[in-house]
C-alpha cells in the first residue's frame, strides 16, 4: 500500500521552476504514452473516510474498469467512448463522454497536458503531482495524479494513485498497489451487464 495521503499533499511555498515544470510534464507524457495496459489493486476512500477495495484494469486509449470487491454493487467502466457508472443495487446506469471525465488525462495519452494540467510542488523530489482540469468546464471536476519516480517503470514513473474533487467539493482518493504494465488484457475486460429492465434502456 502506498503511504501518500492524496487528499492533503504536502506543498512547498516556493514555485516550481519553468525548467522543472517542462521536465516533469514531459516525463508524465512519456509515461502515459509508454503504458498501453496496466493492472493494479486499488483502495478507494470517499469523503466520509469509507474505504473499498478492488482491481483496476486499464487499456489505452479510453478503456478502464474498476472491479470492486465482493459485496459492493457498483461498477465503473469505460469502453473507449463513454465512462459508465453502474449501480446494480438500484439498477441505474449513468454515462458520460470520456472527455468530460477528470480521468480523461489518464485515459488519453495524447491529452494536451500543458493545456489541462499543472505540476503541484511537493516536499519530496521523488514524487510528481499533476493537477488536471478543464478551465472551460469546472463542472467536470479536478483530478490530482500522483506518480513515484521509478527508473524501472515506463517513462521513469509509477502511477501511485489520484485524488478527485467533483463540482460539489466531494473528494475521492484512490491508492494503487501491485501495478503491472503492458501485459495482455482480455478483449471482454471492459464489457458490462446492464441491470435496467429491457425496453427502458436509453
Protein described:
It is a single chain. The chain is mainly beta and 202 residues long. It has one domain: Clam (outer membrane lipoprotein receptor (LolB), chain A). 12% of the residues lie in helices and 40% in strands. The protein has three helices and eleven strands, in the order H-E-E-E-E-E-E-H-H-E-E-E-E-E. An eleven-stranded antiparallel sheet has the order 6-5-4-3-2-1-11-10-9-8-7. Strand 9 (142-149) and strand 10 (157-165) form a beta hairpin. The longest helix is centred in the N-terminal third of the chain and has 17 residues, at 18-34. The radius of gyration is 17 Å and the shape is globular. Residues 1-21 have low confidence and may be disordered.
Brief sketch in words of this structure:
The chain is mainly beta and 202 residues long. The chain has a single domain (18-179), classed as Lipoprotein localisation LolA/LolB/LppX (outer membrane lipoprotein receptor (LolB), chain A). Helix content is 12%, strand content 40%.
Global geometry: globular
Multimeric state = single chain
Q: What is the count of distinct domains? A: 1
Structural class: mainly beta
**Mean pLDDT over the full residue set:** 84
Strand order of the largest sheet: 6-5-4-3-2-1-11-10-9-8-7
CATH architecture: Clam
Terminal CA distance reads: 39 Å
- The CATH fourth-level homologous superfamily: Lipoprotein localisation LolA/LolB/LppX
CATH class: Mainly Beta
Helix content: 10-25%
Q: Rg to the nearest angstrom? A: 17 Å
Number of helices: 3
**Percent of residues in β-strands:** 35-45%
Amino acid at each position: 500500500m502506498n503511504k501518500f495521503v492524496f487528499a492533503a499533499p504536502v506543498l512547498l511555498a516556493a514555485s516550481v521552476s519553468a525548467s522543472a515544470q517542462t521536465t516533469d510534464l514531459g516525463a508524465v507524457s512519456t509515461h502515459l504514452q509508454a503504458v498501453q495496459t496496466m493492472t493494479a489493486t486499488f483502495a478507494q476512500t470517499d469523503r466520509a473516510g469509507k474505504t473499498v477495495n478492488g482491481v483496476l484494469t486499464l487499456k489505452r486509449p479510453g478503456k478502464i474498469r474498476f472491479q470492486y470487491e465482493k459485496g459492493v454493487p457498483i461498477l465503473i467502466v469505460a469502453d473507449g467512448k463513454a465512462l459508465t457508472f453502474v449501480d446494480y443495487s438500484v439498477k441505474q446506469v449513468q454515462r458520460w463522454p470520456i472527455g468530460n471525465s477528470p480521468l480523461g488525462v489518464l485515459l488519453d495519452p495524447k491529452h494536451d497536458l500543458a493545456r489541462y494540467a499543472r505540476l503541484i510542488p511537493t516536499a519530496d523530489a521523488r514524487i510528481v503531482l499533476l493537477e488536471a482540469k478543464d478551465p472551460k468546464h469546472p463542472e467536470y471536476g479536478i483530478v490530482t495524479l500522483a506518480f513515484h519516480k521509478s527508473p524501472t517503470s515506463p517513462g521513469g514513473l509509477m502511477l501511485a494513485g489520484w485524488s478527485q474533487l467533483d463540482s460539489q467539493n466531494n473528494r475521492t482518493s484512490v491508492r494503487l498497489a501491485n501495478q503491472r504494465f503492458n501485459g495482455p488484457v482480455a478483449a471482454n475486460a471492459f464489457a458490462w451487464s446492464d441491470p435496467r429492465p429491457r425496453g427502458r434502456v436509453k
